[in-house]
Amino acid sequence: MSSIFSKIIAREIPADIVYEDDDCLAFRDISPKAPVHVLVIPKREIVSLADLTVEDEAVMGRCVVAASQIAAAEGLGGGYRLIVNCGEDGGQEVPHLHFHLLGGRKMSWPPG
Ligand code: AMP
Question: How close is the Cα of 9 to the center of ligand 1, in Å?
Answer without folding.
Answer: 14
